[in-house]
Write a structure and sequence with these properties.
The chain is an alpha/beta fold. The protein has helices at residues 49-62, 86-89, 110-121, 131-136, 138-141, 156-165, 181-190, 213-226, 231-239, 242-254, 266-289, 295-313, 325-331, 334-338, 342-347, 353-361, 364-377, 381-391, 395-411, and strands spanning 15-23, 28-36, 73-79, 97-102, 125-129, 146-150, 172-176, 194-196. The chain has an 8-stranded mixed barrel with strand order 1-2-3-4-5-6-7-8, surrounded by 5 helices.
Length: 416
């Protein structure tokens, strides 16, 4: 384990926080990334030019030009006065940045509007954070690609009124702070284009229900693969559900793993994938077997969380203790799949005690890594520093693992 940190982990440097922005199909438009300073007195306040510029500098310093697939967007929170800083704006990478503007509309002048026009030529577009900014500056609104309206600070009637006043503008509407299924349904029904909030990193658990046959077969396969059973036994279990066979063969033949040779048998698929990769794939299929409210968003969250835990865990655990890192993340949200409390959901799977205790009680290093991942997803700033310090992770470790997890989850093609 790395040497424990001292002053660094008091968060004098910003760490990167991510929030997915989801389209109506449940896929990600992109991510809002912003740097949280961790201290109120360190000069990185969010409503100043200095704070925005410093946060953006840290974010851009951690990103390379190819870290997201083409078409995905990165939303960067920025004070509106940043439009006056031509030198800094020149440093922004072309093609995938959205400046999420906040601040007083009175600070927007003709030069700022012209700057927005120039940024658009570089495919750097604008999002307005809140209705007030749009209402006070129509010239700003017509130059914006997105606008965010909060669901938790306005009642439904007022939110609908704001949405209705914007309906004739081509700006895309993003509902932010969506925290539950009712808010999501309301915003979706009135026509929001995109959604952002805690609901998409932790969908509500569905009421307890009968476990369907497909899920029962998956659990059986999961058990056999976890035990590294004979390929013939695993193949037999697969064949009891023909849809599983189709999914596995479709996955392996589309994932570039067959090296040009079409795979037509389960035994051959196992040989190519290996037990570890097959174990992960079956765990992911568990999420597609349920009826989660936002399945695509849920799967992306699970994949990102799992990869983050694996990436961060490699920095603190010896290689012989790293096998369960990814699976802790994968299995930590199975309550949504089974419609059961997490303890009951996990009880349906044959898991090592250390993994179960890590997921349910956050015990050991595995549990601490899971707790860190959840704290980052939920913006629980007060916990992040202490957990990272106990693990011996630097802020750079956390930021690198965050971006690696997003990059990997977005690049992965899942056949479900």
């Amino acid at each position: 384990m790395n040497e424990p940190l001292r002053s660094e982990i008091t968060l004098q440097q910003p760490f990167i926080e991510r929030q997915p922005i989801i389209d109506r199909s449940g896929d990600t438009l992109g991510y809002e990334l912003y740097a949280y300073p961790g201290r109120a007195d360190d000069g990185l306040t969010s409503n100043t030019l200095e704070g925005s510029a410093t946060a953006l500098a840290h974010l851009l310093g951690n990103m390379d030009g190819n870290w997201l697939p083409e078409g995905k967007r990165v939303f960067l929170n920025a004070d509106i006065s940043l439009l006056d800083d031509a030198d800094f704006l020149a440093l922004l990478p072309d093609g995938y940045i959205v400046l999420d503007l906040h601040g007083p509309s009175g600070s927007v002048n003709e030069a700022g509007l012209a700057t927005i026009d120039q940024l658009r030529l570089r495919d750097i577009v604008i999002s307005l954070d809140g209705f007030t900014l749009a209402a006070e500056s129509p010239e700003l609104l017509i130059r914006s690609t997105y606008i965010k309206l909060a669901t938790d600070s306005e009642n439904a009637y007022l939110l609908y009124g704001h949405f209705d006043r914007l309906k004739d503008y081509p700006v895309k509407k993003i509902a932010k702070h969506v925290s539950n299924g009712s808010e999501y349904k309301f915003c979706r029904d009135i026509g929001f284009d995109y959604f952002q909030g805690y609901f998409f990193t932790r969908p509500e658990i569905l009421p307890e229900r009968e476990i369907n046959t497909g899920l029962t077969h998956l659990v059986e396969v999961f058990d056999l693969v976890g035990q590294s059973a004979e390929p013939a036994k695993i193949e037999q279990a697969f064949k009891r559900d023909p849809t599983l066979v189709v999914k596995l063969l479709g996955y392996i033949n589309s994932a570039g793993m067959s090296r040009g040779r079409k795979v037509t048998s389960i035994a051959h698929a196992i040989q190519i994938l290996g037990y570890r990769q097959l174990y992960r794939w079956v765990a992911l299929l568990l999420y597609t077997a349920g009826n989660a409210a936002a399945p695509a968003a849920l799967m992306k969250t699970v994949l990102t969380r799992s990869r983050f835990i694996e990436s961060a865990g490699r920095r603190v655990l010896p290689s012989h203790e790293q096998d369960n890192l990814f699976m802790v993340g994968m299995l930590s949200m199975l309550d949504v799949v089974f419609g059961l409390p997490l303890a009951k959901a996990l009880a349906k799977l044959p898991l090592p005690d250390t993994m179960t205790r890590a997921i349910l009680g956050y015990e050991g290093t595995l549990g601490m890594l899971l707790s860190l991942a959840e704290a980052l997803e939920q913006s629980r700033y007060e916990h992040i520093g202490s957990i990272a310090a106990a693990l011996g992770l630097s802020l750079q470790d956390i930021n690198t693992a965050q971006l690696d997890a997003i990059r990997w989850a977005e690049s992965l093609t899942v056949t479900a």
